[in-house]
Design brief:
Blueprint: H1 2-21, H2 25-32, E1 38-42, E2 62-63, E3 69-70, E4 76-77, H3 83-92, E5 96-101, H4 106-115, E6 124-127, H5 132-143, E7 150-154, H6 160-165, E8 169-172, H7 180-197
Parallel strand pairs: 1-5, 1-7, 5-6, 7-8
Antiparallel strand pairs: 2-3, 3-4
C-alpha cells in the first residue's frame, strides 16, 4: 500500500541520516567523552514548530501517515524533521534527555511525545504551569544530576538568567527548532564552564 511504501521510504531516509551522522572518533572525543549530561528541551517552537497553549488543540490525537498527527478537527501537526535523529544521536553520545512544558494540558503534551515516537529517547518529563526554572528543578530532583551537569535549550530567553544562576548551561535557539550544532555548541560551552562550576 502507499502507506507502507511511505513508511519504508521514511525508514530508509532515517537510516541514511543515522549513517551520515554516526559519531566519528573525533566527535566522540569532543562530545561523547564528556561525562554524562542531562540535556533538557522546552517543547513549543523548540522540538516542534507549533504552540500547544490556548486550548486550540482538540483531542483526541491520531497519528496518520509518517509523522503527521491529526486532532479531532483534523488540524495537522508535525515535529521538526531533525528532532528524532537528534535525540538518537544524543543517546549515542550517552547523555540523558529531559523535556519540559509550562502548558496546563499535560496529557496533550505527553500524547504528542508518544505519537512522535520521542518516548524511547526521553528519560524525564515535567509539565505544569510555573516558572521554567521550577520545571527544570523538578527534573533535577528526579534525575539527581547536579545543576552544572544540565544543558537547557529553549526558543525563549525567559527564565534563562535564573537557570544560569543555578549554573545550568542555557542556550536560546531560533526559527527551525533545535539542531545538532546547537547541542554540540552547548556541550562545547559546558566544557568551557566546567572548571568554574566545579
Amino acid at each position: 500500500s502507499s502507506s507502507s511504501s511511505s513508511s519504508s521510504e521514511s525508514d530508509e531516509v532515517s537510516a541514511s541520516v543515522r549513517e551520515r551522522t554516526q559519531p566519528t572518533a573525533k566527535a566522540k572525543h569532543d562530545y561523547g567523552n564528556v561525562s554524562t549530561k542531562l540535556i533538557i528541551f522546552d517543547t513549543d517552537k523548540t522540538i516542534w514548530p507549533f504552540s500547544t497553549e490556548g486550548g486550540k488543540i482538540y483531542t483526541p490525537l491520531t497519528k496518520v501517515q509518517g509523522d503527521v498527527i491529526l486532532d479531532k478537527k483534523e488540524n495537522q501537526y508535525r515535529t521538526y524533521p531533525q528532532i528524532k535523529d537528534l535525540f538518537w544521536k544524543i543517546k549515542e553520545y550517552g547523555h540523558k534527555i529531559g523535556v519540559i512544558s509550562q502548558n496546563p494540558e499535560c496529557d496533550t503534551i505527553y500524547e504528542f511525545i508518544k505519537l512522535f515516537d520521542f518516548g524511547k529517547y526521553v528519560d524525564y518529563k515535567a509539565c505544569f504551569v510555573g516558572p521554567k526554572q521550577d520545571l527544570v528543578r523538578r527534573i533535577q530532583r528526579e534525575s539527581k544530576f547536579n545543576f552544572y551537569d544540565i544543558i537547557y535549550f529553549d526558543d525563549e530567553h525567559k527564565g534563562m538568567p535564573e537557570l544560569m544562576e543555578l549554573k545550568v548551561t542555557s542556550l536560546r535557539i531560533y526559527d527551525e527548532g533545535v539542531m545538532l550544532q546547537d547541542v554540540e555548541r552547548g556541550l562545547a560551552l559546558y566544557t568551557m564552564y566546567d572548571p568554574w562550576w566545579n
